[in-house]
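Retro notes (design track)

What went well: tokenization of the new backbones is finally stable.
What didn't: we kept losing track of which sequence belonged to which structure.
Fix going forward: every design gets posted as structure first, then sequence, in one message. First example under the new rule, 613 residues:
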């Protein structure tokens, strides 16, 4: 089987991984059962493989119409493959060692074999490697389980309708893209390159929708294109078509873009307006000017501008199409960004991955052959960059694959408490109108507001004043009270209860969890179990303790039972450990629920568990 595993390609599908994981799991289980006194590492690794197989089976259930990269990135699939292959080789080597001691076919002797007969040094080395593999498998199981829950919470976008619209427009307006139409399966919604609506345009009815020809054989030969749709409040609909061609390196290092605008109104016939042709020079990432932008070296940038002229501001990198502004933003040097903006660089030009400077400042990145991802910058200096971009005409109305700038993750440990509040005030002053939007995973401006720690209450109040519904439920059934019970202090929960009349204490999400479950889950954090004020408040307001709920996959942390089991709040607290259980019991005591409703049962649990603390 080791030979078969060694032949797995770098692009192995989930179905193939399932097959190999299952084979290795059976091999490890049979080996552990075939010998007496088998080391605990063998049993542990066989159990982990079974859990990994279950996680992959659950994930593969989402495979219909979804690529393997969307379900599980290539690097994780490679890690699963290599770890499984290593385990299989170790098990095979252990079998050979045992066979050399007992002889093949002597099953009776093999079952009586004790591992003392094998070389101690060899055994120690092999078992040490098995322990390392078990740790890796545990981490993989957690990651796969998390991805599974995210995909379940918001299913991957169905692009059938968008494809039909794009194909119709291409047939009507761009006959030269006949071959591109045949590749409609390679078109996914993203923000378009080129000229975008600026933040000063307050007449937009909704965020622009854009569709981009992504990686396919046409792109490899240099052809790329996109379509952007906008709709204004006075019922004027605009479709911008951008066709681009990157000349081969052996020919000329330039990029040619052709843009056509098609504008139609419901009361008039369609008008086709003239487009524009832009030529941008593609240069090496190692060129003097691009290197200076990547380093954020202000002095070197100014020196290049003085020597080579302002024309170099319109150059882009050879491989990724990054503009000087995007490189400066990625360097996280505010001075370099300011220098380029003051020199006249366009803040609304994206790279080949269709990432705009506004999104790049918030940590949005593109990865080859992997989905785009976003991680907030390490410091809150991104807020300064955003302010400068807006001042120089950057659009705040764009979206990338269903994300607007307020559905991205805007919080990171170490930020000042008022970072998100300041950002929302800046967007409000720039006529931003998408505070109400929620992405596929349930992230929204309101969700980000709950991350603001001490500034959570004024941030929530700001959104309410802007017309955002605080009582709106997420697709998974959670309300603001659920999120606040887990992420915020008791003051925020009280504020929602009193100011916004969120009195549905026992409102359940799709798993059956009430806000009380989320408040209990917060107690698991080291040191947080001492502050059970949110739990006490919910209990005092009548939160039920006799409900049953399946736990959200990311909340299931007990090593016993099954995440599909139903838990009462008491059982859930017990599953999180003694510290959490005792803290929950104290909250019940304070709310006067033990004597009145549960009586002896909780006292028995406390009496039995207390000596173990």
């Amino acid at each position: 089987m080791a030979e078969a595993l060694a032949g797995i390609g770098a692009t192995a599908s989930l179905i193939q991984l399932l097959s190999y994981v299952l084979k290795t799991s059976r091999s490890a289980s049979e080996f552990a059962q075939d010998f007496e006194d088998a080391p605990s590492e063998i049993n542990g690794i066989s159990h982990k493989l079974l859990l990994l197989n279950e996680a992959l089976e659950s994930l593969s259930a989402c495979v219909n119409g979804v690529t393997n990269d969307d379900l599980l990135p290539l690097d994780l699939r490679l890690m699963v493959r290599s770890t499984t292959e290593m385990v299989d080789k170790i098990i095979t080597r252990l079998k050979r060692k045992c066979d050399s001691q007992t002889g093949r076919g002597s099953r009776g002797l093999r079952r009586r074999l004790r591992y003392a007969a094998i070389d101690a040094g060899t055994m120690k080395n092999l078992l040490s490697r098995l322990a390392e593999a078990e740790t890796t498998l545990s981490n993989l199981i957690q990651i796969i389980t998390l991805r599974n829950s995210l995909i379940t919470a918001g299913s991957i976008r169905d692009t059938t309708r968008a494809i039909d619209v794009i194909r119709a427009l291409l047939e009507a307006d761009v006959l030269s893209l006949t071959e591109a139409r045949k590749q409609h399966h390679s078109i996914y919604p993203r923000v378009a390159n080129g000229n975008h609506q600026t933040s000063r345009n307050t007449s937009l009815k909704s965020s622009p929708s854009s569709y981009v020809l992504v990686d396919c054989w046409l792109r490899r030969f240099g052809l790329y294109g996109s379509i952007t749709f906008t709709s204004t409040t006075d019922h004027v609909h605009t479709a911008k078509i951008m066709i681009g061609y990157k000349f081969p390196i052996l020919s000329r290092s330039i990029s040619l873009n052709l843009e056509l605008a098609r504008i139609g109104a419901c009361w008039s016939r369609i008008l086709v307006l003239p487009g524009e042709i832009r030529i941008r020079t593609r240069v090496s990432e190692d060129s003097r000017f691009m290197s200076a932008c990547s380093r954020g070296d202000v002095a070197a940038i100014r020196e290049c501008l003085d020597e080579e002229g302002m024309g170099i501001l319109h150059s882009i990198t050879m491989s990724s199409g990054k503009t000087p502004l995007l490189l400066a933003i990625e360097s996280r040097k505010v001075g370099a960004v300011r220098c380029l903006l003051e020199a006249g660089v366009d803040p609304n030009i994206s790279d080949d991955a269709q990432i705009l400077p506004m999104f790049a400042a918030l940590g949005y990145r593109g990865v080859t052959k992997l989905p785009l991802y976003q991680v907030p910058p390490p410091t809150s200096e991104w807020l300064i960059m955003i302010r400068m971009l807006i001042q120089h005409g950057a659009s705040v109305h764009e979206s990338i694959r269903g994300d607007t700038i307020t559905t991205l993750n805007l919080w990171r440990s170490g930020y000042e408490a008022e970072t998100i509040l300041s950002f929302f005030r800046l967007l409000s002053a720039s006529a931003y109108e998408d505070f109400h939007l929620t992405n596929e995973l349930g992230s929204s401006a309101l969700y980000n507001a709950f991350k603001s720690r001490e500034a959570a209450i004024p941030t929530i109040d700001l959104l309410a004043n802007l017309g955002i519904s605080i009582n709106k439920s997420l697709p998974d059934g959670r309300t603001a009270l659920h999120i606040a019970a887990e992420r915020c202090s008791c003051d925020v929960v009280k504020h929602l209860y009193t100011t916004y009349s969120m009195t549905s204490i026992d409102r359940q999400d799709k798993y059956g969890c009430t806000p009380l479950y989320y408040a209990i889950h917060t107690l698991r954090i080291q040191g947080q179990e001492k502050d059970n004020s949110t739990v006490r408040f919910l209990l005092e307001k009548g939160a039920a303790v006799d409900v049953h709920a399946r736990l959200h996959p990311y909340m299931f942390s007990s090593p016993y039972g099954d995440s599909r089991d139903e838990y009462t709040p008491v059982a859930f607290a017990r599953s999180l450990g003694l510290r959490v259980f005792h803290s929950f019991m104290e909250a019940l005591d304070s709310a006067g629920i033990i004597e009145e409703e549960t009586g002896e049962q909780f006292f028995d649990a406390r009496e039995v568990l207390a000596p173990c603390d």
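Added context from the reviewer: The longest strand covers residues 271-283.
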